[in-house]
Amino acid sequence: MAKDKKNKAENPLKGGKDEATTVKKKKGALADPAAGDMFKMADNLGALIIVDAQEYEKDFVTENGPSNIIRGDITVLTEEDGKTRLKDPVEYTNTIIFGTAVVASLKSMVGSGQLVVGVVGQGVKKAGKNAPWLLEAASDKQKKIAQAFLDE
Questions:
Q1: What is the DSSP letter of 37?
Q2: What's the burial of 143, exposed, middle or buried (CB within 10 Å: 0-12/13-18/19+)?
Q3: pLDDT for 74-104, tens place per residue?
Q4: Phi, psi (rounded to 5 degrees) for 33
Q5: For residue range 38-74, what is the model confidence (pLDDT) as tens digits?
Q6: How far apart, in whole angstroms, are the C-alpha atoms of residue 65 and residue 59?
Q7: Among 17, 68, 114, 117, which is 20 to 30 Å from 2 by CA?
Q8: Where are the domains of the chain?
Q9: With contact defined as beta carbons under 8 Å apart, do 103 and 110 qualify?
Q10: First vs last Cα of the chain: how many Å apart?
Q11: Residues in CB range of 110: below 8 A, 6 or more apart
Q12: What values do phi and psi take at 25, rounded to 5?
């Protein structure tokens, strides 16, 4: 009695025969895809924030045309007065950060592992344009608020 031989199917991607492979199963809970949080500069004008700049993306497609962005996490530590510490800081994860001046101030920090502390500000409006969003330097007192949060 002859043994049956199975023909292996050709795999055009490998340029040869398909071969069985063993897949290691990973244990853990399954999660839905994560959507980024929406951080709005206008809602946080004057607030002290910490930014973890994780990724720079050039020519990100927006409804107003391409724009350079930073992806990262933002933690809002104070009210809009920049002094009154929030009882429960507000965290925005995997958010997109827009604004030419803000992106420029964060770009060098991408991937550095350093956190940026600053105050959401707004520059002077020019004819036909909106006032630019800025990330202004935090005062020594504000830096102490940020450090106290990180030390908790």
A1: P
A2: middle
A3: 999 999 999 999 999 999 999 999 899 999 9
A4: -60, 140
A5: 899 999 999 999 999 999 999 988 888 899 999 999 9
A6: 8
A7: 17
A8: 36-151
A9: no
A10: 76
A11: 53, 54, 55, 56, 70, 72
A12: -80, 140
